[in-house]
Write a structure and sequence with these properties.
333 residues, alpha/beta, eleven-stranded mixed β-sheet, four-stranded parallel β-sheet, 32% helix, 18% strand
Length: 333
């Protein structure tokens, strides 16, 4: 199969619609990361996503719709969720509702819920309006690999396996959407992201984090222990152990390897004599840069050494979640 990377035009959107209607998989840009999409109501097409990614069969997908789509036919929406939709959608927030059972049961892996997202990316909106149906889509990367924020990243993972990548440029958000369980009376964050607990609580009065129990079936994407991982060897150090990271760096260099530090801007400045991938100063910069730097690091380093950022709360909850999972660290606090 030839994989085409095409800009979003009326012609490429018509082609994308033909592919989706034929049960094929199409990669598309969103404001967070690129998605690997198929018709959410076509069970064979949804299962193709799992096969392409090598994704565990118990890891649910998110259904994406355009801003004008009537979601009442897909899910039951508690009254209190209306304020969140008004405030944050379209945008990087996925809301989990009781499902009406319209989409393929494979999307939710047999759970009685459906995760819905309305991306704000204009190219995603154009694609979703062209197909005018819910599109099941995880991130467009091989399972457990670093999520893609450019069309080239998608091509690197799936060249020859999918027919089309709709190129919307680099994804600026950088980490996947916040996933919010809306099936109870208090919203629960299943996966942290750019829409923070504080932002949600400010609108509806309360918001808590959900902590997955050992042996429990995942309620949303991104809850696996090791995820978003680079293909090279890695090491990880806490924010207060930059000295340990540098010792590890020097040991790898002494063995003839090519170590690289991945760290926030202040730490990068303090160790300018090392090969460094600078995540940036602000939580938003670190979110935007994280996956691109992990992808770069796996190609340039024999050992990629992560140093945990010092900041906590807000967007940093999502950044730390991805960083810890990428380096195989326990994310439970």
């Amino acid at each position: 199969m030839i994989t085409q990377i095409l800009p979003v035009t009326s012609r490429s959107l018509a082609y994308a619609k033909e592919l989706i209607e034929a049960g094929e998989v199409v990669a598309f840009h969103t404001e967070t990361v690129y998605g690997l999409g198929a018709d959410a109501c076509n069970d064979a097409a949804v299962k193709k996503i799992f096969a392409l990614k090598g994704r565990p069969a118990d890891n649910p997908l998110i259904a994406h719709v355009h801003s004008g789509y009537d979601i009442s036919g897909l899910v039951e929406t508690p009254a209190w969720t209306a304020r969140l939709r008004e405030k944050f959608l379209p945008g990087p927030l996925t809301m989990v509702y009781p499902s009406r059972g319209v989409v393929s049961p494979s999307v939710s892996c047999g759970l009685p819920t459906l995760s819905l997202r309305v991306p704000s990316s204009p190219t995603a909106q154009a694609f979703l309006r062209a197909v005018d149906r819910p599109i099941a889509a995880p991130s467009a990367n091989r399972s457990k690999h670093v999520s893609p924020v450019t069309a080239q990243h998608v091509y690197d993972d799936f060249a020859g396996d999918i027919p089309l990548i709709l190129d919307g440029g680099a994804s600026q958000g950088g980490i996947e959407s916040t996933v919010l369980d809306c099936t109870g009376t208090v919203p629960l964050i299943l996966r942290a992201g750019l829409v923070t607990r504080e932002m949600i609580a400010a609108e509806v009065g309360a918001c808590e984090y959900y902590h997955m129990q050992a042996g429990e079936k995942p309620k949303s994407p991104g809850m696996a222990y090791k995820h978003y991982a680079p293909s090279c060897l890695t090491a990880f150090f806490a924010a207060d152990d930059a000295a340990g990271a540098v010792r590890c760096y020097n040991a790898e260099k002494g063995r003839g390897g090519t170590p690289v530090l991945l760290c926030e801007h202040a730490v990068a400045l303090a160790h300018a004599d090392c090969r460094v991938l600078d995540l940036g100063n602000t939580p938003e910069e670190m979110a935007s840069n994280l996956y691109a730097h992990l992808r770069t690091g796996e190609h340039m380093a024999t050992l990629l050494i992560g140093i945990e950022p010092a900041a906590r709360g807000g967007v940093m909850d999502g950044v730390r979640n991805r960083l810890l999972r990428a380096f195989g660290q326990d994310t439970r606090e």
